[in-house]
Design goal:
24% of the residues lie in helices and 15% in strands. Helix 5 runs parallel beside helix 6. The relative contact order is 0.16. It folds into 2 domains: 342 residues, Alkaline Phosphatase, subunit A (3-Layer(aba) Sandwich), CATH 3.40.720.10; 77 residues, Arylsulfatase, C-terminal domain (2-Layer Sandwich), CATH 3.30.1120. It is globular and about 65 Å long. It is built from 9 helices and 20 strands. The N terminus is likely disordered. The strands form 5 sheets. Strands 7-6-5-4-12-1-13-14-2-15 form a 10-stranded mixed beta sheet, sandwiched between helices. Strands 17-18-19-20 form a 4-stranded antiparallel beta sheet, with helices on one face. By secondary structure, it is α/β, with parallel strands linked by helices. It binds 2-acetamido-2-deoxy-6-O-sulfo-beta-D-galactopyranose (NG6) and calcium ion. 2-acetamido-2-deoxy-6-O-sulfo-beta-D-galactopyranose binds next to loops.
């Protein structure tokens, strides 16, 4: 009793001063450490959302983001396919520099070396809670690939992520299971998973042998193990209790993303929310099936818009809207038939997935990498349409700048610090950008684009996409001709030489950030 008064006084003092420092910490964190959520759609084209010109389909939530935020009309992923784009966004380096970063099989080892500084590391080092939910497709595990029946390491936990809930590769690749923090979710140890990409294992039916069991038929490839009535790329057996149900995949991811936000609402957080929508197989939730009139591809776009809405609603319900930068973009451009007969071609109507752009997914033409690209922070950023040249590869240097986390020389070799541009405060675009097509490279500088000659097919026999390949050099003036219809290479040979020399130098230098 004797000591009570001084102790009480001290505790009150500690309480008050604790409160004061907590308030300023919170204030500081909201101002200089906003939460960041990257919503990364899969295979969504520049023309697939109504704010970028679609008229046959409406995406009101994504439109709202664009109306509130900075809507980029010249924003690019780094590559026209998934794995290299994700590699570049997370490492700040062009994937063409690193062999083995092409479209990864479902049993690939992790393609990012744990020693590499990543975008998640930047946030993590700045005191953020970091999470990745959704499509990974960057390989898992060490040499020999992932151990599906144990703890999968290395993984996102070695690349700066505190939390992960993943589809390991793609929806059309085995194993059709989710992993949560390095372990297959719902796995029964008595029914271990085996995966093989070379030959059939186990007795599961395949699309090739048992097409009568399919609810969706392949149009090319995709005829290996059948899971949930859909044949996939690759063979798997076991793991019955862990298999995903495609219809509820978006729900599963969105719920995990919502939980992550809930659990970290008090701290700054970085969430990389990589949707499966609208990649194949397109198997929308029953809420959306048949709703677009464009078949499952259109329905998947509606479902994607709904998922975006749920994330925004979650932020709003926690009063985090103004404290959170939301980025919405896509890993590569659009494809209509990507291997399943899902009526996407037949029901396309007049819809133009690439908008005014030529090509699509896999292509060296601009629809390959020029994608919807929106940065939004209501109350903090003013709406603006921006035509500056930016790329997802720039996120790393830009957020390093925002968080005062200096990059070392070897880090993020191709990431330009474009924070002001991303926040709509500067109109100076990156000096040039290298676009990685499926088989060839292209470079954009100012109004000009040069595509390196390539012997690959001009039109893919599978997807019917114009691949941008040509045995001759191609040069386009994107300002006069955004649809890349007039090859000006013969008229401006000196421009061709200038850009081809620049690309050579970029390759030789091994970096573009100095
Ligand atoms: C291709 C698949 C395609 C898709 C793509 C990866 C075939 C014939 N095509 O090899 O369906 O899975 O890989 O897409 O198998 S991405 O968006 O993840 O890069
Ligand atoms: Ca993709």
């Amino acid at each position: 009793m004797k000591n009570c008064l001084p102790i009480c006084v001290i505790s009150v003092f500690v309480l008050i001063s604790g409160c004061a420092s907590k308030t300023s910490e919170l204030k500081g964190s909201a101002e200089s450490k906003p939460n960041v959520v990257i919503i990364y759609a899969d295979d969504l084209g520049y023309g697939d959302v109504s704010c970028y010109g679609a008229t046959k389909i409406q995406t009101p939530t994504i439109d709202k983001l664009a109306a509130l935020g900075i809507m980029f009309t010249n924003g690019h992923s780094s590559s026209a396919s998934c794995t290299p784009s994700r590699y570049s966004m997370l490492t700040g380096g062009y994937a063409f520099r690193k062999p083995g970063t092409g479209i990864a099989p479902g049993d690939a080892a992790m393609i990012i070396d744990p020693e590499t500084k990543t975008l998640a590391d930047v946030f993590h080092d700045a005191g953020y809670k970091t999470g990745v939910v959704g499509k990974w497709h960057l390989g898992l595990g060490g040499e020999g690939g992932p151990n599906w029946n144990g703890f999968i390491s290395p993984g996102p936990q070695d690349l700066g992520f505190d939390y992960s809930f993943l589809m390991p590769a793609t929806g059309d690749r085995v194993p059709c299971v989710y992993t949560e923090n390095g372990r297959v979710q719902g796995l029964d140890p008595a029914d271990p998973i085996k995966v093989n990409y070379k030959e059939k294992i186990g007795n599961e039916p395949t699309g090739l042998e048992n097409p009568e069991l399919l609810k969706m038929h392949p149009s090319h490839g995709h005829n290996n193990t059948i899971v949930n009535g859909i044949s996939r790329i690759g063979f798997m057996t076991g793991g019955k209790s862990a298999l995903w149900v495609d219809e509820y995949m978006s729900e599963a991811f969105t719920q995990k993303a919502e939980n992550f936000i809930d659990q970290n609402k008090e701290k700054p957080f970085f969430l990389y929310f990589a949707t499966h929508g609208i990649h194949v197989p397109r198997v929308p939730n029953p809420l959306f099936a048949g709703k677009s009139g464009m078949g499952p591809r259109g329905d998947a776009i509606l479902e994607l818009d709904w998922c975006v809405g749920r994330i925004l609603d979650k932020l709003e319900s926690l009063q985090l809207t103004e404290k959170t930068i939301v980025i919405f973009t896509s890993d590569n451009g659009p494809v209509v038939d990507d291997g399943y007969k899902d009526q996407a071609v037949e029901l396309l109507g007049g819809h133009k997935p690439g908008g005014p752009l030529r090509g699509g997914k896999y292509s060296a033409f601009n629809a390959g990498t020029q994608v919807p690209f929106i940065v939004c922070q209501p109350g903090k950023l003013k709406h603006k349409k921006s035509d500056v040249l930016v790329s997802q590869v720039d996120f790393m240097a830009s957020f390093s700048k925002m968080l005062n986390q200096p990059l070392q020389g070897k880090d993020a070799p191709d990431s330009y610090e474009m924070l002001d541009q991303l926040l709509g405060k500067s109109d100076t675009g990156r000096p040039h950008f290298v676009h990685q097509g499926f088989s060839t490279l292209a470079i954009i500088q100012g109004d000009w684009k040069y595509i390196v000659p390539d012997k690959g097919p001009e039109i893919s026999e599978f997807t019917n996409i114009e691949m941008g390949n040509n045995r001759m050099p191609q040069l386009y003036n994107l300002k006069d001709d955004p649809g890349e219809t007039q090859n000006l290479a013969a008229r401006y040979p000196e421009k061709v030489k200038e850009l081809s020399d620049l690309l050579l130098k970029i390759k030789e230098d091994g970096r573009t950030r100095f």
